[in-house]
Write a structure and sequence with these properties.
Helix content: 55-70%
CATH topology of one domain: Arc Repressor Mutant, subunit A
Mean pLDDT: 92
CATH class of one domain: Mainly Alpha
Strand order of the largest sheet: 1-3-2
CATH architecture of one domain: Orthogonal Bundle
Structural class: mainly alpha
CATH superfamily of one domain: Winged helix-like DNA-binding domain superfamily/Winged helix DNA-binding domain
Distance between the termini: 73 Å
Number of helices: 7
Number of strands: 3
């Protein structure tokens, strides 16, 4: 009968570079955790109904920038152009956005919010605002503007 190999119960030695790495101080990890918390609060407020966070961002941006081109909306929202194009298509089919050829450049589409989009946003923006307040709630009020400024600096927005 073959003799069973004994397993070592000792964990392998962990190099110093790993022991000294402080995950709680790693910006990428912390941003991911903040993103998770943000999504959790949004889901609690909206459940599975209504527009997504990206759709809300797009609708607000279109309302604030009527007749913006898709390229301009990519820059304003940070949503990649393929995702944005699909979102515009879906929101147009839902009657929330309208597309037409750009007045200055016929190769571009000018995107406009419909009255339905404005009514929808009027209804949900107070809940969105509450979620934003909940995200910042753990921070002292004096640090909230500093935190938001730091986030804008990280993403390259003034």
């Amino acid at each position: 009968m073959a003799r069973a190999k004994s397993r070592s119960t000792r964990a392998p030695a962990v190099p110093a570079v790993i022991r000294r790495f402080a995950l709680r101080d790693a910006p990428g990890h912390l941003l991911r955790r903040c993103h998770q918390r943000s999504e959790e609060l949004f889901t609690q407020a909206f459940g599975g109904e209504g527009p997504t966070r990206q759709q809300i961002a797009l609708l607000v941006t279109v309302c604030q920038n009527p007749d913006a081109s898709q390229a301009e909306l990519v820059g304003l929202t940070g949503i990649d152009k393929n995702t944005l194009a699909q979102m515009i298509k879906r929101l147009t089919l839902r009657g929330l956005l309208e597309q037409r050829r750009g007045a200055h450049d016929g190769r571009t589409n000018a995107i406009t919010a419909t009255a339905n989009a404005i009514r929808l946003l009027e209804d949900i923006v107070p809940r969105v605002r509450r979620v934003q307040d909940q995200i910042l709630a753990p921070l002292p009020k004096t640090l909230r503007p500093v935190f938001q400024r730091c986030l804008r600096l990280i993403i390259g927005v003034r």
